[in-house]
Known about the structure:
By secondary structure, the protein is α/β, with parallel strands linked by helices. It is built from 14 helices and 20 strands. It has helices at about 5-15, 25-50, 55-80, 120-130, 145-155, 170-175, 190-200, 225-235, 255-270, 285-300, 345-355, 370-380, 415-420, 445-450, and strands at about 85, 95-105, 105-110, 135-140, 165, 185, 205-210, 215-220, 250-255, 300-305, 310, 315, 320, 335-345, 360-365, 385, 400, 405-410, 410, 420-430.
Amino acid sequence: MDEIQRLILMQKKFFKSGKTLDYHFRINSLKKLKLCIDRYEKEIKKALFKDLHKPDFEIFVSETGFVLKELDFVIKHLKDWTKPQKVSTDLVNFPAKSYIYRQPFGVTLIISPWNYPFHLSIMPLVGAIAAGNTAIIKPSELSVHTSLILHKMFDECFDKSYLSVVAGDINTAEQLLNEKFDKIFYTGGSKVGKIVAKKAAEHLIPLTLELGGKSPAVVLSDANLKAAAKRIVWGKFFNAGQTCVSVDYAAIEESIYKKFKNILIDEVKKYSTMKRFEENYSHIINIKHFKRLVSLIEKSKTIYTRGYFEDKLLIYPTLIESDKDDAVMQDEIFGPILPILKFKNYMEIREFITSRPRPLSMYLFSQSRKMKDRVLNEIASGGITINDTLVHLTSSNLPFGGIGESGYGSYHGIYSFYEFSQARAVMDRSTLLDFPLRYPPYKGKLPLVKKLF
């Protein structure tokens, strides 16, 4: 028996002990995780800088601070979430009481990506702990320094039989996926997501897939163009575009296209020439992704860039004019390249977006209530922010997840608690009364039964 199988058996044994079912155990575990993050915060920051050259601001906003905010929210509300939910009982089952209990799955597997290697490892874990599961985290081998810190952190703070980090490459991931977990939570690309889904299906394992896609920013003629440009630039180039909900391209109405393009160029210039630019900007994760992105730039119609530097894995914010069939429009970019496309009107934009796989997110810039309602009703996406970018992701009160090829399942706040637990139907019937109506013989009883239903 190998190490992974031993670890899973340890966790199964620990889960069966019932310790994770106790509310106080869960709360104490969440508080312990928070203390552990506080203790390791400097090392986490160093690791994220080594992996992605992330600036301190982005690390706090999208990694450590983001997770700590979620922990505070869950700790505050968990007692209410764990209470059985009483629901009404229909007349046909009188006398009885009906409830919904949330029960944990058991031993869970969390597979996280490299672009937000701390945040996307720990955020699902918060839900797993809150719902009463044990967990094994498999972080990406590409963000090696963060993976090492996660391993060190959990070895010190938690017993392996409860929470553990398993470092390793694709072979380790394959080993894990060959085991029968009680729940799998995967964040990453759709190509690997399909492999994970097939593996989960072999064992009928409940699965959450958080994938990606080409998330558009739609700029309509009535938009505040200055605000739209500034917020699109921020949303696109945050983490050097290596964000699953990043603005993948901007779809702009023809009547404002030229004016908006000039404003957008000015905003990208400001961003690219800001004081101490490199202190405020992430780099590309590795040479493979760097070369993939450079090939997209070289095939494109670039209208603004300050270039790219292989020795630093640095690609400056790049703005390009694109056509629908260009190479840059075929797959999710996942880098600091922003294509802009011109469309005659909203109807043409809608037709283009709805003819493609449904995106994880979309961003609408419009001042019209009518157009906001139309977009919400006519274009599907996992989530949407109106007149801004990315920020819907930051709320613990909103579910975050995809639709169609951008994934399924959602989390954050109570939705994480739901995602890592099952809604269990409970009916508690009294034995004081037992109506003979349901028992055979049935002759002559059907008319009365129909009235009860």
